[in-house]
# Entry
Amino acid sequence: MTPDATPARAARAWRWIPTLYFGQGIPYVVVMTLSVVMYKNLQVSNTDIALYTSWLYLPWVIKPLWSPLVDLFRTKRGWIVTLQLVIGAALASVALTVPGPAYFQATLAVFWLMAFSSATHDIAADGFYLLALPPHQQAAFVGVRSTCYRLAMIAGQGGLVYLAGALQAKTGSVTQAWAYVFWLLAGFFVLLGGFHALVLPRPAADRAGHRETPLFREFLAVFASFFRKKEIGTILGFLLLYRFAEAQLLKLVTPFLLDAREVGGLGLTTQQVGILYGTIGVIALTVGGLIGGLVISRFGLGRLRWPMVFCMHVPNLVFIFLGLAQPGNLYVIGGALALEQFGYGFGFTAYLLYMMMVAEGENQTAHYAICTGFMALGMMLPGMAAGWIQDQLGYVPFFVWVCVATIPSFVATGLIKVDPQFGRKA
# Structure
């Protein structure tokens, strides 16, 4: 390798890493957040929104089951470009079906296709990243990856939600406004797929895999080794319960913000939700995560697990305040949402580090993928019932229930064993 080879490779990486991870974040935001806002605008009940959109987590739950196929068939570069075009087609299908009479069933079917495509794209993109860059550059670009993914969240939860609200005000039609938003996204992903077909490098290591042992046998061995870990029951309990309360809360925050004050909501416009929750809230979430990572790197996960679990859950109390007071001041609402999201981002860092600790050792990548599957399952199952619970109780009692539902997380945190120095800089 020539002396200029590494800087040249780094310069080329700037051409594709930001767009790849921005593109990775958008479909997830569309499926998990924009779908909720759109269905609420279309007067779908909270019970149906929470139940059916929670099922959309399933592809991320089970994606470890088909991740070997990405290695065996085609190159990861080929998977990325193809799946971005498939996602573009799915977004166009939403734009076509949302004005129709059976929009709920039709759009849900398309969101399922998009969720599976997005989960598979995640596998291919993360694998390609490892193949296209040497280890020292992988570390150098981790922050870039994370930042661009967060920018996708801001663009989706903030910019696109705001745009939908503005188009509703201009056109007078909810369905037409959301159709325009999805046509815009479809065009973006078609262009993104074409762009990556041109600029993504072609690393020699990126080729269809060959296995000397049968895939099924190897696959079972990797899974079996994960479930043979010491105290696996406690580990799984923590993975499933740490976000038990947050999984229910997240499904109802947007409906609460949009619902009329007469039914216990705050009566915000779609544009205001895009600014307060989708932009300010996501920025606070990001800052909380960054600070959480810095604090753990100084003191270690063992010393900080209890402060972090408190920071994760105690700020949920702000929703009881918002439900009781129903403030009209946007600064008060924005400050409360920012506080809750900051705490969520700060406390969630401990969860991510714990998964890394659990995955250490042989088959680290596969075991981390299994952990993320249980993480998604821990979001899917509680979220499914959240809308029904809220419809039965009303908003304020529901928020009280969410605070009570943090108890399993505290219990699970007390049962796990954590290396006191894990995550701490040497």
Notes: Residues 1-5 have pLDDT under 50 and may be disordered. The chain has two domains: 8-200, 230-415. The domain at 8-200 is CATH 1.20.1250.20 (Growth Hormone; Chain: A;). The first helix runs from residue 5 to 41.
